[in-house]
Write a structure and sequence with these properties.
CATH superfamily of the largest domain: Histidine kinase-like ATPase, C-terminal domain
Largest sheet: 9 strands, mixed
Shape: elongated
CATH topology of the largest domain: Heat Shock Protein 90
Number of strands: 23
Strand content: 15-25%
CATH architecture of the largest domain: 2-Layer Sandwich
Radius of gyration: 32 Å
Strand order of the largest sheet: 1-6-5-4-7-3-2-8-9
Number of domains: 4
Amino acid sequence: MSVEAKQETLGFQAEVQQLLDLMIHSLYSNKEIFLRELISNASDAADKLRFAALQDDSLYEGDSDLKIRVEYDKKHHTLSVIDNGIGMTRSEVVGNLGTIAKSGTKQFFESLTGDQGKDAKLIGQFGVGFYSVFIVADKVEVQTRRAGAPRGEGVQWVSEGKGEFTVKTIDRPKRGTRVTLYLRKDEKEFLNGQRLRGIIKHYSDHISLPIVMDAEGKDAKGEETVNSATALWIRDKKDINEEEYHEFYKHVAHDFDPPLSYSHNKVEGKLEYISLLFIPSRAPFDLWDRQQRHGIKLYVKRVFIMDDAEQLIPSYLRFVRGMVDSNDLPLNVSREILQHNKTIDSIRAGNVKKILKLLQDMAKKEPEKYQKFWDEFGRVLKEGVIDDPEKQEELACLFRYASSYDDKPEQCVSLEDYVSRMQPDQKAIYYVIADTFATAKNSPHLEIFRKKGIEVLLMTDPIDEWVTNHLSEFNGKSLQSVTRGELELGELGKEDKSAASEADTEDPSIKKLSGRIKDVLDDKVKLVRATNRLTSSPACLVSDHHDMGLNLERILKASGQKVPGTAPILEINPGHPVIERLKCMDEEEVFSDWSNILFEQALLSEGGQLEDPAGFVQRLNKMFIQMGRDRNE
């Protein structure tokens, strides 16, 4: 087959076309970032070649001097970025430049607001930098050949960013990739050597690979290196300014926004390594996928080894970006070797320690910044209580919750805050878990606590069900759900408990009523009993100590899991007018309707769903009609 016969025209994935339109309109005010993105891609290609050449140095093809070249042509109005890195095959070109092969695509486009400023941040969050070239170019040409492939298997990709692209096989003597931008007529600023050097120094000075351009000026000859070409992490911290750290983060994380915080550490002694770890300011779309790894790069003696080394950071810190450079690992290290390596275990422990210390300092010294972190990553951090039992107390200090203390939806109350406000005779940290803040805040279970002035944590994250099963105490205080078992307030609830107990055991009418309601509800409830936890509601549902909570049961069912049903306990408020009315109700049909309504409204107040909504409405309407008749009579 001839070279020309291998040419084909393909359409962009629909999402790519959406993205191209958005890029051009949303990022125009910061258009020079396209050069940063191309240089970062070229740097990644060089890193990948270095790693592959550890196993097969013939991939260098006699040229191991890796670098990135930037050149421009005023006559043809073009700007090119050239690298001699790993290169791409034909299928890689189509896959990488024609589609967005990344989880979270649907969520990304659903999140677009139409506000250019906000959407620009979303683009950066999604990490699709190559397409930024169409901000300044009306045509882009990519020529590439995979290292080790025959010269006749080069690939050319051309597109004007208008719905389709052309791919054809070409003869390409050199490995690597050349990206040529045919600039728009009004983009002459990028045909200026001084302007290009300024952009490279500003955005890409940290790149450890030389970025070269033709020397300019009187008697200038050859090429010159524009950037420092020194790995940023090996420089002394006092010689690195914050802007350089931020630009390095944007390079390793492919993010447009600066990080929230970072930690640069050099460990010396028996074990020697350098870590540069960043906490992003925004969560990526696929953060909630525990199998998706994101951003710790591993280097050995300055040589890139692998992306997303999951052995370097636990899953509950998967939001962390950055790199680790070790002097104690072999250059041919593999993922399999990393799984059972004491050096890696030590580095991982060190990374966890540094990140938790960074968060602790942020929480103490910069609470507003920490609140921003918690809003983005708090749910993931909570996983640590389950994954890393040894760090439970340390992690628990970082947790934040909404609380009945101020009834605000913001999760800003720490467990330490709660303990500091506990009443003298209070023995436990009380909490309620619900689907939403409104459901938690208005739960009837909080009534006695509000009466007694006892604070209750309002938990609304699905993971809180699992966290509280593993975090049984904090600072010597047990964590106790207000919706499980009989309420134990110790001395604080002695009077109320005594009154409820008397009503249940000494008042025959309450005991009889409980039995009648149980007969009506049958297996819908395990038990009906008087309670001391209600002050204004007629009834509530509680779970037995060893039974699955109603909220957890709903979560598991919603995820498609089969859950054995456990009947709740119906607790009634002996002094409530509805209960008083039920005590003297003789007509069995009306009593049955009222008993079912009592159960159903208790279920609804917990955020539950009715099995028979229509039946509930019918019973309610019958009750309204009967009450109207009673008044007329």
